[in-house]
Amino acid sequence: MTGLLTLDDIRAAASRIAGVARVTPLVEVRELSAWGEADAFSLRLKCENLQVGGAFKIRGAFNMASQIPESARRAGLLTYSSGNHGLATAITARRLGVPAVIVMPTTAPPVKVEGARGLGAEVLFEGTTTLERKKRGEAEAARRGMTIVPPFDHPHTVAGQGTVGLEILEQCPEVATVYVQIGGGGLISGIATAIKRSRPSAQVVGVEPVGSARMTASLAAGEPVTIPMTPGIADGLLAVRPGDITFRHVRAFVDRIVTIDDRAIVAALRWIFREGRLVAEPSGAITVAAALSDLAAGRLEPRGPVVAVISGGNVEPAAFRQYLEDGAAAG
Question: How would you classify the pairing of strands 43-47 and 26-29?
Answer without folding.
Answer: antiparallel
